[in-house]
Structure formats: C-alpha cells, structure tokens
Amino acid sequence: MAKMIGIDLGTTNSCVAFMENGRATVIPSAEGERTTPSIVAFTKNGERLVGQAAKRQAVTNADRTFSSVKREMGSDKVYRVEGRSYRPQELSAMILRKLKADAERYIGETVSDAVITVPAYFTDAQRQATRDAGVIAGLNVLRIINEPTSAALAYGFDKMENRKIMVYDLGGGTFDVSILEIGHDMIEVLATAGNNHLGGDDFDLCVVGFLLDVFKKEHGMDLSKDPMAMQRLNEAAERAKIELSSAQTAVVNLPFLAQTSKGPLHLETTLSRKRFDELTSHLVDATRGPVQQAMEDAGVSAGDIDRVLLVGGSTRIPAVQAAVRSMMGKEPSRDINPDECVAMGACLQGGVLTGAVNSLLLIDVTPLSLGIETMGDVFAQIIPRNTPLPCHHSQVFTTAANFQTSVEINVLQGERGTASGNKSLGKFRLDGIRRALRGIPQIEVTFTIDTNGIVQVSARDLGTGRSQEITITGSGNMSQAEIEQAMHDAEMYAEADRRKRAEEARYSRKGADAAENRSDDDGAMDA
Ligand code: AMP
C-alpha cells in the first residue's frame, strides 16, 4: 500500500514525517538533515536545486535562487528565470517533490497521500494554492490543516479533555498564535492571530546590523552593499543567534571579509546574550499584541489557558521563552522538537484520515470573515471570522431596484465594514429573477466552507428556485488546465533528471551507486 506523509511546508524550512509502528517519525532529508530549507534554485547549466543545495549556492546565484515563496502563495506573483515563468505554487511543488522523493527513498515505498499544513490565518486563496502545489508535486492532498492544530496533535493534547491551550509559533519568517480548545474526540481552534512578517530572519538582521557597525567602527568601511560579505554576515549572524540560545556569549570570526588596497580586512568580535536581547527586544515585544488579540477573540484570559506550547525554531531563544512565561504566567511546554512537531501532527492527522490512528475529529476556524457586497458599498457579513469549520450559513437578500431581473454576487473576505475595503474572492451573477418591485424578491445566499477551508457560495431566488454557485479558487490561483500543465512539466523534469543521472552513472567509475549519492548531495529533483 502506498504510504502517507505529513508535511510542514515552512517559509524557511520544511519537514516531513510518516507513521512508523503507530508513531509519527520525522524523515531525514537525503542530505541527512531533519528539516529542508524551503529554497529552490536554477543553475546556469539548467539544473534545478532544492533545499540545502540551493541554499549553499544562493550567494553566487542570487537572481536564480528563490526563498520564502510561501509568503507569495495565492498571489499573482510570477518568478522569471531564463524566459520561463513560475507561479509560487510551482516553486513550492518543487520543494514538495523533493520531500516526497526523500520520503520514498527513506521508507523504500511509493508515497502518494499527504496532509500539508498552513499558517492558521492563511486565506482561502493561499490554502487553495498550497493544495495545488501538492497536486503539481504528484501528491494526493488528503487535507490542508492549520499548523497549531497539527502541533497540538503531536503533543497528544487531544487526550486532555476540556482544556484550553495556546500555541505560540515563531518560525523563520512568520509568527502565529492560536488558542485551541480540546473536547471529547475533538480539537477546536477558538482563535488565531499573528504577523506573517515576523520571525527568526528578523533576529538575524539585527545581528547583521550589529556586525556591520562593529566593522564600520573598526575599519571605516560600509559592507552593506557588498553581497558576498552580506551573505557571510547573514550566515554568521544566524550561527551566533543559535549559539546564544545555549551560551552567554558567541564569537564571530570572519577573516578576509573585505579587500582593500592595503590588504584584507577581517571581522572578529564577541556578542553577548545580554546585547543580543537588547538588539532584539522589539521583536520579542511585537509578539505580545497578537497574543492579547487571540485571547480576546477566544474570550479567555491567561489564567484560563492550561498549557502553552512552543513551536518554531525561534522559540529556542531564551528571551522569547521568558516573554511567553511572563505573559502567560506559566512554564511553556517544549518536550517535542519545535521544528518537527507540526510535520508530526500532520502525519498523525493523515493517520486519522486513513484509519491508521483512532478517530479524532479536528475543527479549524475561518481565518477572516466572509460575506457579500450590498448596496452603497456595504459589506454584509455572512460568516464571522473564527467560525469553526466545516460550516454552512445562509442569509436572505433582496433586489435594490424595481424590476431588477439579475443580481451580481461579489464574494468578499475581510474585517472592514465597507465592501471596497475587503478582498473580493470572486463574483457571479444570478439571472432570471421574477420581475417585481425592489425589496420583494427573496434571494438566499449560502456560504459553505469545507474542512480544508475551501469556500463555496450559492445564490437562489426563492421565488423561481433558480440558483447559481461558485467555488472560490482565489483570483491569484491557477486554473485546472494550468495545474495539469505544471504537473506535466514537473514529471517531465523528473524524467529528465532520472535520465541525466542514469547517463552520469554510466560514465561514473563507481557505477550506479555513485550517481545516486551525487544526486543526493545536489538535492536535485527526483521522483
Ligand atoms: P522554523 O521555521 O520553525 O524552521 O524556524 C527556523 C528559524 O528558527 C530560523 O530563523 C532559525 O535560525 C531559528 N532557529 C533554529 N534553531 C534555533 C536556536 N537554537 N536558537 C534560535 N533560533 C533558532
């Protein structure tokens, strides 16, 4: 039987897990790491690199290397490389394809099904784009689930009835906080809040700023415009930050960082945890607002929260842990590796869906309110945000003008009172309404959101029974034909890669084994 995997498709790193002997187990990448950088690159000789291999050559091939693609999911953004353009979901699909290939190599069996996680407040278009990325990668996406829900599952919190927990997730590029309620056989997300432009990368930038200042004071030279030096400073900053999570000081030593007519210049300095905390305190403080917002939306106070769960690599920063402790008045749980628990939970959810794990029902919420436009630019809310999924709400509307025989339904998502202040997800028209004075026809508009957060809207004239409906796929998303084309392309590349490796193996002294190893090192695409 083909295997199922759980995937945490992260902004900076991704992680994949599978069920082994009834337990969620993280699958190491072909490079031997437990997470894979979410980076894709195209080399000048036409090769595609994914993960560690793409990260390693990022500086020398900057304009053909793409990271943080997750931020663009569901948008119209197009990445161009040598006359070809790629949508965010196509680049994400390349990451998913590598995770799938690594999983197949590790398990020794074909992988077909997957559960993929998304930030709790991803919009419908972003969720749909994530699902499309899975399909392009050749995966049967069983479900898209929210990352905090997934983390709670990994912790086995589904076993604690009538408890409320907070998931505080600070990753490389995003911050999410969620309040979950655990009931009998179910986890309900009561509220979510966050900032999708706050994460470990911002902490790195603060350290880079510090290092640039040290260098400038010492040598009177500004390195901020030197890409090669900046890449080295970035890497050193992240290393120092990670060191400071367990040590009080970190030494940064970067020889030959710049070249002058008088010879090479070096950087050597020490950063203390105290100074690091000062440099980054505004970032830690920026997580307080969303924490308060989530508690307010859920109608709870810190004292009502039974457990606080830390997720994301950046929660290893001691000052972050201290801030959570002081905000919540309790010691946060961090028994499971914070980089891995989301993928593990996704895998457990997959286990539930395929019957490998005993029944457990998950309820997520709508991240933003949904409704339609009515006369005078008014947003008529039909489903308020944080409504548990799946849900089904109807409301009756009428015509704005006498003898109006058709209405346009503009489906909106957002929190503003005006229609124009919110995002339009799509429009459709209901024709054939019986001629009548305005205010007489009754048009029932129904919103249905499934467990994946995919929205369907229908309008029915109660007088004639005529109805019309749309499934929202988001304006920035791909059509079915485009997805099929992208799947076809992805398979073609996988086949080309396979042929290339086979070719290389024939010419390799060590034969097929050597070729297999080399392809692992490159992180090149594989099927
Ligand atoms: P994630 O998106 O959960 O993989 O988190 C990645 C972020 O966590 C990156 O910014 C890493 O630099 C950061 N990170 C990983 N380990 C540590 C650590 N020990 N201390 C501080 N930050 C870390």
How far apart are the first and last residues' alpha carbons, in Å?
18 Å
Would you report the number of β strands? 26
Q: Could you tell me the mean pLDDT? A: 86
Which compounds are bound in this model? Answer: adenosine monophosphate
* Helical content (DSSP H or I, runs of 4+): 25-40%
Query: Strand content of the residues, in percent?
Result: 25-35%
The biggest sheet amounts to: 6 strands, mixed
Which spans have pLDDT < 50 for at least 5 consecutive residues? 507-527
Pairing-aware structural class of the strands and helices?
alpha+beta
Write the layout of secondary structure elements.
Layout: E1 3-8, E2 13-20, E3 23-26, E4 36-37, E5 39-42, E6 48-50, H1 52-56, E7 65-67, E8 79-81, E9 84-86, H2 88-107, E10 111-118, H3 124-136, E11 140-146, H4 147-154, E12 163-170, E13 175-183, E14 186-195, H5 200-219, H6 227-243, E15 249-260, E16 263-272, H7 273-285, H8 288-298, E17 307-311, H9 318-328, H10 341-353, E18 361-363, E19 370-374, E20 378-383, E21 391-397, E22 407-413, E23 423-430, E24 443-449, E25 455-461, E26 467-471, H11 480-507, H12 512-522
Parallel strand pairs: 1-10, 10-11, 12-17, 14-18
Antiparallel strand pairs: 1-2, 2-3, 2-4, 5-6, 5-7, 8-9, 12-13, 13-14, 15-16, 19-20, 19-22, 21-24, 22-23, 24-25, 25-26
The chain binds adenosine monophosphate (AMP).
The site of adenosine monophosphate (AMP) has 18 residues, from helix 5 and helix 6.
Keywords:
globular, 527 residues, alpha+beta, 26 strands, disordered C terminus, binds adenosine monophosphate, six-stranded mixed β-sheet
